[in-house]
Amino acid sequence: GPAHLFRLAGKCFSFVESTYKYEFCPFHNVTQHEQTFRWNAYSGILGIWHEWEIDNNTFVGMWMREGDSCETKSRQTKVHLVCGKSNKLAYVSEPSTCVYSLTFETPLVCHPHSLLVYPTLTEALQRKWDEAEQLLYDELITDQGYKKILKEIFEEAGLLKATEENEVEKQSKKISLEFETVEKCSKEYKQLSEEIEKLRVLLGQHGIAYKGNLGE
């Protein structure tokens, strides 16, 4: 991620609401401590540093995942980074069960270019991004194909974690009817057309009528 944010590493910021104290340690974890004298007062991890949230090619937040178990899943927290006069944890909420939302204010993100993803990438990945932009401009890939390339770039850079869904997607690629490039679509169509023609000839040799439209 953005190198200038690394100066937050090793520091922790707390926020007290009602009887709970929340602590956010950038690039480490988020914890919650119930400040009561109850014998079973809760104290636990709401998430461990996992990956970035990227929107419109900008770092918008940090995902802390794989926290303490909560019913059938693990607790997780999204930390929103907003411009502020000082480094402080400003707000905490729980928009859905066991999924927390923290707002962290810092002057480190006030510059309009401070959270851009592109400058943080290696030259090789920047070139890959440039090529994707050109392909999109030339209409050689679809918008969906462009987003997919960006996601792969972010994963390769370690900004996003590859999920199991991605692995499943890779496996099902062979049977997918969605194509990222016009060239790939045309090539696939040509191959399928040739295959249908071979099957039609084969059926004809065995005296079986073929009632299909090759164009379909």
Structural class: alpha+beta
Kindly report how far apart the N and C termini lie.
Answer: 48 Å
Could you say what the CATH topology of the domain at 3-106 is called?
A: Cation-dependent Mannose-6-phosphate Receptor, Chain A
Give the amount of beta strand, in percent.
25-35%
Instruction: Please report the first level of CATH classification, the CATH class of the domain at 3-106.
Output: Mainly Beta
The helix content, as a percent range, equals: 25-40%
What do the pLDDT scores average to?
86
Characterize the biggest β-sheet: 8 strands, mixed
Shape: elongated
Radius of gyration: 25 Å
Q: What is the H level of CATH, i.e. the homologous superfamily of the domain at 3-106?
A: Mannose-6-phosphate receptor binding domain
Low-confidence stretches: none
CATH architectural grouping of the domain at 3-106:
Distorted Sandwich
Q: What is the β-strand count?
A: 10
Q: How do the strands of the widest beta sheet line up side by side?
A: 1-2-3-4-5-8-10-9
**Helix/strand order:** EEEEEEEEEEHHHH
Total number of helical segments?
Answer: 4
What does this structure look like?
The structure is a single chain. By secondary structure, the chain is of the alpha+beta class. Among the domains are: 104 residues, Mannose-6-phosphate receptor binding domain (Cation-dependent Mannose-6-phosphate Receptor, Chain A), CATH 2.70.130; 46 residues, no CATH class. The chain is built from four helices and ten strands; from the N terminus they run ββββββββββαααα. The strands form two sheets. The chain has an eight-stranded mixed beta sheet with strand order 1-2-3-4-5-8-10-9, with no helix packed on it. Strands 6-7 form a two-stranded antiparallel ribbon. A hairpin with a 2-residue loop joins strand 6 and strand 7. The two termini are 48 Å apart. The mean pLDDT is 86. One of its GO terms (molecular function) is transferase activity. One of its GO terms (cellular component) is extracellular region. Homodimer; disulfide-linked. Hexamer of two alpha (GNPTAB), two beta (GNPTAB) and two gamma (GNPTG) subunits; disulfide-linked. The alpha and/or the beta subunits of the enzyme constitute the catalytic subunits.
